[in-house]
TrEMBL record, chain A:
Membrane-protein topology: Multi-pass membrane protein
Entries under InterPro entries matching the protein: HATPase_C_sf, HATPase_dom, His_kinase_dom, HisK_dim/P_dom, HisK_dim/P_sf, Na/Glc_symporter_sf, Na/solute_symporter, Sensor_HK_Regulatory
Coiled-coil intervals: 645-682
Catalytic activity: ATP + protein L-histidine = ADP + protein N-phospho-L-histidine
Every Histidine kinase domain range: 682-902
This protein's record includes keyword Membrane: yes
EC number: 2.7.13.3
Entry's localization field: Membrane
Protein name: histidine kinase
Broadest EC class assigned to this enzyme: transferase
Chief location bin: membrane
Organism the protein comes from: Devosia enhydra
CC annotations in GO: membrane
Automatic annotation (TrEMBL), chain B:
Bilayer-spanning residue ranges: 36-54
Keywords attached to this entry: Membrane, Transmembrane, Transmembrane helix
Originating species: Devosia enhydra
Protein name: DUF3311 domain-containing protein
UniProtKB/TrEMBL annotation, chain C:
Record PTM 4-aspartylphosphate, positions in chain: 53
Keywords noted in UniProt: Phosphoprotein, Two-component regulatory system
Protein's recorded name: Response regulator receiver domain-containing protein
GO biological process, one term: phosphorelay signal transduction system
Source organism of the structure: Devosia enhydra
All residue ranges annotated as the Response regulatory domain in the record: 4-120
Gene3D superfamilies, A to Z: 3.40.50.2300
Length: 912, 78, 129
């Protein structure tokens, strides 16, 4: 077999054809059989191994040849991230499924309040940062073709006349075409490319097999591990000799760990293309195992190449040149295909991932802004536009990669170029970690942090790579800009003893994180940001909180137009029919529920990114800001800080309330105390008055021996009367206190209240005559059966009537008593034409011992307990006693209301 | 082991994996020994790597299932 | 000039007992039963001593006392205040208003007689000077 450049190129094209076929079959198979081989966790794992690019395939050997074990860090970093999948990757996958995240830019934009600005920033920076990486692939493919062509005795064949740059351009153009054919055939509902993933998986197998084949060949040719390592050591290539585990080791370990999360294509395959979370479980060990297998033979190949190939040969190409040197053309061709595989898979996926970001975060938002009309358009408009945008961005991305390749063609090592890209994308890491773990991280801070990190990266890592092609850059590196020493790109702020890579990583990530932390502490989140932060943090809870930030109303027609524009007619119809079926409403009268709008938003987000979907739907959904605040509150379960301070506030409010209550109680107590004093002084007065008479007369009777019998008899009867008065006073006090305690001292039975009233009138008749009061007979109910104790009822009525008589000071006193029945209630009114009760005294008239104005000192016999006692008694009978406005201008009117006894009342009235 | 302990174990497994690849631990293996001609630090790196893979495999089965899995993924085309 | 003592008391029992013991002690006694009547009776009868209950109808004993002390003619009239509300406050008010003696009900007859006698003696001594 003779290996020519033409044969190599032909093989490459044929291989691409095979890949295309696999992708095509893969796509159609997933459509017909959802659960097939392509959905297996191992295909998923293999697709993740797109991480191992031609950098691994060629560059790792070169790196091992130059820096010994250091190459391993590039695989150890991802290994550590994957064995810790539970903590970061699982969250990422969960959140991205829940939120229908389409890219790393979408993730950050979504977390930080669906910020389109952040989306744009991340997209632009990712495109810039990836350019060196793409260039690396172009360089690797070009070099590998050159290596074979250079070694071939048949010359360059049809490559005659193509220099390295032209070849690289050809490769770039071919890759662009290939990627466009592969990746932009349709806008998938969820940006999943099952066919592409199938092809990538195949390529993963090819490159691993090729590298292991070369490794086994080397072991065979070199006579085993020991001779290879000894020979290398003998020729001055000893791993022991290099100081491996320093700042550079740590920096590249960190970078690789960051890259497996932050690289757009890794996010694409690990998170977006993930169709089942459990696949991550398998990948957690299988992907590290894959990388271990890829790395096993790197050291032997590198050392064997170093000790056997002539000095000056490019160590990056050992994988290819070792078989070539041994005349193993078949193996060399296989190795070339392996390297080609790793390059193509990387370029395809990276540019698909980037093009999705570009179209979702730059093109669609711009288009939305330009088409301010609600633009129904034809259903295909948006889709076609998106596809075209992706095609153009793929070309642009490869062009950028090619430009970088062109500008830095002077330097020849592969691995350092890759590390520049790694450092660039690592600037997303602080924001991503904050998105996953830090609720308070704010969008403004994230934008500032990423921008800061990127500026440092551009200065300290990206720009220095042009040193070989630009004298200006070389001068800045040596002396600093305008001679400012402390701004030298690889010795910022005078830090010049670090390795350049570690230096760039240290400063960029330090400043990046510092800005993120300080910025988040100083700025505040928008409401939507708040909601999203909560959703992100709660994503792995068992009961995920679902919320729809877009609430409000929209007509089904409007929504359908939007959906059709983005998703296409068929999917839109399917979506709406499903909703119509579920709600049991006809299509035309479908009223979109918030849940449906939310689902629609997620569907749209799956195609055009969350920020764009949000903007697009906001145009037709008339939501209101208030509902967003509501949602925020509802969604926010763990807003502990706020709740804590609220709890504190509540506690202090309670304290205040308690203090207030205490004060009130105290005032009440003082009032009660005053009332008690008043009460005691009243009782004292009421008791002392009869006591005085009793004592005075007893003393008279005792001391005056010569009293006439008439006087002494009168004195004794006065003593007796006053004793009785004293007794009845004490009875009243006890009576009231018993009533107030709620003791029941009588039996209620159904009686005629009119009889009790007659009894009371008879008793008061004498008093009335004595006072010269005329008792006017008002209308009477005749007969009214109530549930009461007749004696007690009489007591109340006597009290009321005698009060009316006693306090009536008009010259012509009249007291009128009337009674009537209405609405199941029996009422008695006692009305007098006396001076009445002044307005200010009315509220206190039923207070104990309250007896009219103190200053007036009206004389009466009672102790001021009559009304309180009466009121208590009536209350016990389920009735009321109140002072009402009388019919006349003056006078007082007391009204007793008692409910009629339900059963007996009417029949007895009927019989009477 | 309870769910919490398992998760904690997975965390520390990862953490010690990280520490194992960082100085000063990794620097302990810079002494002159060459099993099968391979420098000892290379052997250490690859052996630890292998152990991590085995450990990760164990954890991938041991770690609890947590709720929302394939069944509840909306928007998947039938 | 016949009345030695004017008694203002609304409780008939107490009034009767008071009149009895004061008359027994040798003085002439007139009585009224409400506050308004006190003032006019004082002017009319010109008693040497007034025995005044605080809880009087129409006009309280305090009010009566205040008016008596405001009037030049009656300012010097010795007043014995009777109260049934055995509180310090009543006593203080009475003293502030210019009561000469203060007796709390229920009193012993001797106590009242002694108090009235003391007031009469004071008055006599003042008058002698």
């Amino acid at each position: 077999m003779t290996l020519t450049a033409d044969l190599v190129i032909a093989t490459a094209v044929a291989y691409v054809g095979l890949l295309f076929l696999v992708a095509f079959i893969g796509d159609s198979q997933t459509r017909s059989k959802p659960g097939g081989l392509l959905r297996s966790p191992f295909v998923y794992t293999l697709s993740i191994s797109v991480y191992c690019t031609s950098w691994t395939f060629y560059g790792a050997v070169g790196s091992a040849a130059r820096n010994g074990l250091e190459f391993a860090t590039i695989y150890l970093g991802p290994t550590l991230v994957f064995i810790g999948w539970w903590f970061i990757l699982r969250r990422l996958v969960r959140i991205s499924h829940d939120q229908r995240i389409t890219s790393i830019a979408d993730l950050l934009s979504s977390r930080f309040g669906k910020s389109s600005r952040l989306g744009v920033l991340v997209t632009v920076l990712a495109v810039i940062a990836i350019a060196p990486y793409i260039a690396l692939q172009l360089k690797a493919v070009t070099s590998s073709i050159e290596a074979i062509a250079g070694a071939s005795e048949y010359g360059r064949g049809s490559l005659e006349g193509w220099d390295e740059v032209g070849l690289a351009f050809g490769v770039a153009a071919g890759m662009a075409l290939f990627t466009i054919l592969f990746g932009t055939r349709n806008v998938d509902a969820k940006e999943q490319h099952h066919g592409v993933v199938a092809a990538i998986a195949l390529e993963a197998v090819v490159k691993l097999t090729a590298l292991i084949a070369v490794g086994l060949f080397v072991l065979y040719a070199g006579g085993g591990l020991e001779p290879i390592f000894s020979a290398a050591a003998a020729s001055g290539h000893d791993i022991h000799a290099s100081q491996t585990f320093g700042d550079r080791w740590i920096a590249s370990l960190l970078l690789a760990a960051a890259a497996i999360i932050c690289l757009p294509r890794q996010f694409q395959v690990t998170v977006v293309e993930n169709s089942d979370e459990s696949h991550l479980r398998t990948a957690s060990w299988a992907f590290p195992a894959y990388m271990l297998a890829m790395s096993l033979f790197i050291l032997p190949i590198a050392l064997y190449g170093l000790s056997t190939l002539p000095s000056g040969s490019n160590p990056d190409m050992f994988v290819l040149t070792l078989p070539l040197a041994a005349g193993q053309d078949g193996l060399a061709l296989f190795a070339f295909i392996g390297g080609f595989s790793s390059a193509t898979s990387m370029i395809i996926l990276e540019s698909i991932a980037l093009s999705i970001m570009v179209s979702n975060h730059i093109v669609v938002p711009v288009m939305l802004r330009l088409s301010a009309d609600d633009g129904a358009g034809d259903g295909l408009g948006v889709r076609r536009l998106i596809l075209n945008a992706r095609r153009i961005s793929i070309i642009l991305i490869l062009l950028l990669g090619f430009s970088y390749f062109y500008l830095t063609r002077g330097s020849d090592a592969l691995a350092p170029i890759g590390l520049i890209s790694f450092t660039g994308v690592a600037q997303f890491l602080p924001a991503i970690l904050a998105a996953l773990f830090w609720r308070e991280a704010s969008g403004k801070a994230a934008i500032a942090a990423i921008a800061t990190g990127f500026v440092v990266w551009l200065w300290a890592s990206f720009m220095p790579s042009f040193a070989s092609s630009s004298p200006l850059v070389a001068m800045i590196m040596a002396e600093g800009p305008f001679g400012i020493d402390w701004l030298r790109p690889q010795a910022l702020f005078g830090l010049d003893h670090l390795d350049p890579l570690a230096h760039a990583v240290f400063w960029s990530l330090l400043l990046n994180s510092a800005v993120l932390v300080i910025g988040s502490l100083l700025t505040s989140q928008s409401a939507l940001e708040h909601v999203q932060a909560t959703l992100f943090l709660n994503a792995t809870r068992r009961t995920p909180t679902e919320t729809s930030p877009l609430r409000g109303s929209a007509t089904a027609d409007d929504l359908f137009l939007v959906a059709r524009r983005v998703l296409g007619h068929a999917r839109a119809v399917a979506l709406f029919s499903e909703e119509a079926r579920q709600t049991g409403m006809p299509w035309t009268t479908l009223e979109p529920s918030p849940a449906f709008i939310h689902r629609l938003e997620r569907e749209l987000a799956g195609s055009i990114g969350s920020a764009s979907a949000h903007v697009m739907l906001s145009k037709v959904v008339s939501g209101d800001a208030v509902s967003l605040e509501e949602v925020m509150q509802m969604a926010d379960e763990t807003q502990q800080a706020i709740e804590h301070s609220q709890a504190l506030e509540r506690a202090s409010a309670q304290l205040r309330a308690t203090a207030e209550k205490l004060e009130n109680a105290n005032r009440q107590l003082r009032k009660v105390d005053l009332q008690k004093d008043e009460f005691l002084s009243q009782v004292s007065h009421e008791v002392r008055t009869p006591m005085t008479a009793i004592r005075a007369f007893s003393e008279i009777l005792l001391s005056e021996k010569d009293l006439d019998p008439v006087s002494s008899r009168r004195f004794m009867s006065t003593i007796h009367r006053e004793s009785l008065r004293l007794t009845s006073l004490l009875d009243e006090i006890l009576d009231l206190s018993a009533l107030e305690r709620g003791e029941r001292m009588w039996e209620a039975r159904v009686v005629d209240a009119e009889a009790a009233l007659d009894q009371a009138l008879r008793v008061c008749d004498a008093l009335a005559r004595q006072n010269g009061t005329r008792m006017a007979r008002g209308e009477r109910a005749g007969r009214a059966m109530v549930s009461a104790d007749p004696d007690r009822l009489s007591q109340v009525l006597i009290n009321l009537i005698s009060n009316a008589i006693k306090y009536n000071t008009t010259p012509d006193p009249v007291v009128e008593v009337r009674s009537f029945v209405g609405e199941g209630v029996y009422s008695i009114e006692v009305v007098d034409n006396g001076p009445g009760i002044p307005e200010e005294e009315r509220p206190r008239i039923f207070d104990k011992f309250y007896r009219g104005r103190q200053g007036e000192a009206v004389s009466f016999s009672g102790a001021g307990l009559g009304l309180p006692i009466s009121r208590e008694i009536v209350a016990r009978m389920q009735g009321t006693l109140e002072l009402v406005d009388g019919p006349g201008p003056g006078g007082a009117c007391f009204r007793v209301r008692l409910p009629l006894a339900p059963a007996e009342a009417e029949p007895e009235i009927a019989t009477s | 082991m309870t769910r919490r302990k398992l998760v904690a174990a997975a965390f520390f497994f990862t953490l010690f994996g990280v520490l194992g690849f960082l100085p000063p631990i990794i620097a302990l293996f810079r002494f002159d020994a060459r099993p099968f001609g391979v420098p000892v630090e290379a052997v250490y790196v690859f052996v630890l790597w292998g152990l991590l893979v085995l450990g990760a495999r164990w954890f991938s089965r041991a770690l609890p299932e947590d709720g929302t899995q394939a069944a509840q993924r909306p928007g998947e085309e039938p | 000039m016949g009345t030695d003592i004017l008694v203002a008391e609304d409780e008939p029992g107490i009034l009767e007992a008071l009149s009895f013991v004061l008359q027994r002690a040798g003085w002439t006694v007139q009585s009224v039963t409400d506050g308004d009547a006190v003032l006019s009776a004082v002017r009319r009868e010109r008693p040497r001593v007034l025995v005044l209950d605080i809880m009087l109808p129409k006009r309280s004993g305090f009010e009566v006392l205040k008016q008596l002390r405001a009037d030049v003619l009656t300012r010097a009239l010795p007043v014995l205040v009777l109260t049934a509300r055995g509180q310090q406050q009543d006593r203080r008010i009475a003293e502030e208003l210019g009561a000469d003696r203060f007796v709390t009900k229920p009193y012993s007859n001797v106590e009242v007689v002694d108090a009235v006698r003391a007031l009469l003696v004071d008055r006599t001594e003042t008058g002698a000077r």
